[in-house]
Design goal:
With about 200 residues, the chain is α/β, with parallel strands linked by helices. About 20% of the residues lie in helices and about 25% in strands.
């Protein structure tokens, strides 16, 4: 029997954040998360049992309806699930596989072309994620989050891209601080939630 995964939603849009901003992407948002960020804007993803379980074939078939060939697996916390079969099927169908993860899980399953590591203060990440991360994206909610972001840099590959992104509800206060921080620490870049500015999913 083929593996199934709880899919909260899947949709075709533009990547709004991080290193691949502006690129067409098919998003696969999996249910299940035990990190518990109080500012999370998809809390409905937390309960894996609340979402339909789809076969790998059904998930890939949905992606193939669109011309873009970048698939972004997100959540929730997608690595709560074994993603080996999903990524193999996506890559066999011609997709590049990207993931966004908090890195808290014990294993990084799946074959990934790009890993966005987005750590959260609420649970420490597993150090196994450090040498696999292509991108570090830290959400800035308050001033202490800058030091939190910097704490990961010595553990990452030298070529890992570094992004700071304001939590949306705190943009008016924190975005000017991020601008100043990046000007003083140019190894970092700003990530904006451009999909929200563009009013697209």
């Amino acid at each position: 029997m083929q593996a199934t995964l709880p899919v909260m939603e899947a949709f075709y849009t533009l990547q709004g954040e991080g290193a691949h901003t502006g690129r067409a992407a098919y998003f696969i948002r999996l249910g299940g998360c035990d990190v518990g960020c109080h500012w999370c804007d998809v809390k409905e993803s937390w309960d894996a049992d609340a979402h339909p379980k789809l076969t790998i074939d059904a998930i890939v078939d949905g992606a193939l309806h669109y011309p873009g060939r970048m698939a972004v697996v997100t959540g929730g916390e997608p690595l709560m699930h074994d993603l080996t079969e999903l990524t193999a099927a996506l890559q066999n169908a011609g997709f590049r596989t990207n993931i966004e993860t908090s890195g808290v899980c014990q294993a990084v399953t799946g074959s990934w072309d790009w890993i966005c590591f987005s750590p959260k203060k609420f649970r420490k990440p597993n150090p196994a994620i450090f040498d696999k991360a292509d991108e570090l994206k830290v959400i800035i909610y308050n001033q202490s989050d800058f030091a939190f972001a910097e704490s990961f840099v010595p553990h990452l590959r030298p070529d890992c891209k570094l992004f700071l992104q304001t939590e949306w509800s705190r943009s008016n206060e924190m975005l000017p601080r991020i601008v100043d921080y990046v000007k003083d620490h140019p190894q970092w870049q700003i990530s904006l939630q451009t999909h929200k500015y563009l009013d697209i999913p």
